[in-house]
Specification:
alpha/beta; eight-stranded mixed beta sheet; six-stranded mixed beta sheet; 14 helices; 33% helix; 21% strand; elongated
């Protein structure tokens, strides 16, 4: 985040509360729209400037889905901008607090995470002069409403930013559609509203997403999920098994006894992971359920004599992970299991060519052609059918592929 030229839309966010603005009497400001559209940076800067202009010795809140994501995505890039603009900032990380001074004014900005309804208790009892919600659509309603109730100081305002979700989302229906009744300034951002994005970067983001995610993250629309989850995959999207040598091998597992079990063998060639082979067993079709030991035999046959660095397993499959540990040949790792975020990451990985599905994986290819969004719910949910290979692919992407980008995983080993 740098202090450079601002777009017209960003200038609206920076100045809406000023005395010369026609919107100065609004009670809230809402910025939504495309990703990387410049809404978060200018809102955070404006929030601090407004607070230090209008208040002294007051408390405010920055809210994110988690405190960790809030610090990473908003606070860390904001600090050098504030210092460049003349603010004095003092971080008290142990207290999740930032003290900001400008001239004779000094105020306190507390950090809160709103990952679930129970987070509302963390902010309960405070008295705030204003609150900023970063990615408010990802926060539970109970947390947001508790934070709003804390703003009891005369002249306090609410600041919201988010990327679009379902048009049935409570925030869209109550705050965006009801912006006039709530005396809120609503500003919709496009990628073109971010002057720091070059034409090349704009094109890159436009090619990154597909389907619902394209409409939401690139076009900035609140649209319902519908149709295929991965609509961009066609018969030409699958490739033959490449010739090695592969530098690493991983197996991802969606475990099932009554439901199908799907295991995928992944090999890394240069910077791309290929789904080389798979084990897929449907007890309903074959009429016989397999035990954990029998599935382990299938896992062992899929691995062959390859050096498997780890086996990523459905986190609910505790008994199967116990069997893997008992044999001592492979290292089991519980998968990350955020469905919607995982689907988005798989979509991006496929579009970028970071993972490729080989034409030997017939059950994966079949499921890609059948895996659909449900159209009867207010929240994004795929149909719980034809999703077993889809799940094990998602486990691989969220737990292995994106761990390479700075994440981590933990394992337990037997003491000898």
């Amino acid at each position: 985040m740098k202090l450079e030229s601002f777009s017209k839309k960003q200038l609206q966010v920076l100045t809406w509360w000023c005395d010369t603005s026609p919107h100065k009497d609004k009670s809230a400001v809402i910025c939504d729209g495309a990703v990387r559209s410049g809404k978060t940076s200018c809102m955070a800067l404006s929030f601090v400037a407004w607070a230090c202009c209008r208040f002294d010795d007051s408390s405010f809140a920055f809210c994110g889905k988690t405190i960790r994501s809030l610090k990473r995505n908003l606070i860390t890039p904001l600090l050098p901008v504030l210092k460049e603009a003349g603010f004095l900032c003092r971080l008290r990380l142990a207290d999740n607090l930032m003290e900001v001074s400008c001239g004779r004014h000094r105020n306190r900005f507390y950090f809160f995470g709103g990952k679930d309804a129970g987070s509302a208790s963390l902010i309960q009892g405070m008295t705030l002069s204003g609150v900023l919600f970063d990615e408010v659509a990802l926060m539970p309603r109970a947390f947001v409403e508790q934070a709003l109730a804390r703003c009891s100081v005369e002249g306090s305002t609410f600041w919201f930013n988010c990327n679009p979700e379902s048009p049935q989302h409570w925030f869209y229906r109550e705050w965006i559609l009801g912006a006039k009744q709530k005396r809120a300034l609503y500003l919709h951002f496009r990628m073109e509203d971010n002057p720091s994005l070059s034409p090349e970067m704009l094109a890159r983001y436009q090619n990154l997403y597909a389907g619902t995610f394209y409409q939401r993250f690139v076009e900035g629309k609140w649209v319902s999920s519908q149709g295929l989850v991965y609509p961009f995959l066609t018969g030409d999207s699958y490739c033959p098994v490449p010739e090695g040598p592969f530098s690493d091998y991983i197996i991802s597992c969606d475990y099932g006894t009554v439901n199908p079990a799907s295991f995928g063998l992944w090999g890394k060639l240069d910077s791309t992971w290929y789904r080389l082979e798979e084990y897929y067993y449907n007890s309903r079709l074959d009429g016989v359920q397999r035990t954990d030991e029998e599935h382990y035999t299938g896992l062992r046959q899929l691995a062959g004599d390859r050096p498997i660095s780890r086996v990523i397993v459905d986190p609910s499959a505790a008994s199967f992970m116990a069997v893997i540990r008992q044999h001592g040949e492979f290292t089991p790792v519980p998968a990350r299991n955020d469905v919607l975020d995982g689907i988005r990451l798989v979509s991006v990985a496929l579009k970028q060519g970071r993972i490729k599905i080989c034409d030997t994986c017939i059950d994966s290819i079949r499921e890609f052609g059948l895996y659909r969004w449900r159209d009867d719910l207010s929240r994004d949910t795929p149909v719980k059918e034809n999703d077993h290979a889809m799940d094990d692919i998602r486990y691989f992407v969220t737990t292995a592929l994106y761990a390479e980008d700075g994440g981590c995983f933990a394992i337990a080993a037997k003491r000898r």
